[in-house]
Amino acid sequence: MERDAMLNVRVPADLKQSLRKAAEDDHGRSMSGMVTRILGEWLDAHGYKIRPARVPLRAPKKKR
Q1: pLDDT tens-digit readout, 5-62
Q2: DSSP character string of 2-31
Q3: pLDDT of residue 50
Q4: Between vectors from CA 51 to CA 32 and to CA 53, what angle results, nearest 5°?
Q5: Which pLDDT score, from 0 to 100, does residue 57 have?
Q6: How many CB atoms lie within 10 A of CB 16?
Q7: Which candidate, 17, 34, 38, 49, has a CA 20 to 30 Å from the CA of 26?
Q8: Residue 30 DSSP one-character state
């Protein structure tokens, strides 16, 4: 998944500390990676997540 959009969020200090700990405990994830995982799982579970568009396959070349 390409991360091409920035999102800045202000959160309470204790939530940030908990997020940092959870990220470290989850296979050494970054805080950004953990936020992406948590948001993605929640959005998917509640029917909000938009699936990325699939890249269309090239049509097979026609034989001459």
Answers
A1: 899 999 999 999 999 999 999 999 999 999 999 998 999 999 987 766 565 566 666 6
A2: -----------HHHHHHHHHHHHHTTT--H
A3: 73
A4: 110
A5: 62
A6: 13
A7: 49
A8: -
Q: Which residues contact 57 (CB under 8 A, 6 or more apart)?
A: none
CA atoms within 13 A on the CB side of 54: 3
Residue 32 makes CB contacts below 8 A (sequence gap 6+) with 3
Q: What is the pTM of this model?
A: 0.69
* Torsion sign, CA atoms 16, 7, 42, 28: negative
Distance CA 23, CA 25 (A): 5
Q: Residue 30 is encoded by which pair of tokens?
A: 């970054």
Residues 49 and 40: beta-carbon distance below 8 Å: yes
CB atoms within 10 A of CB 10: 5
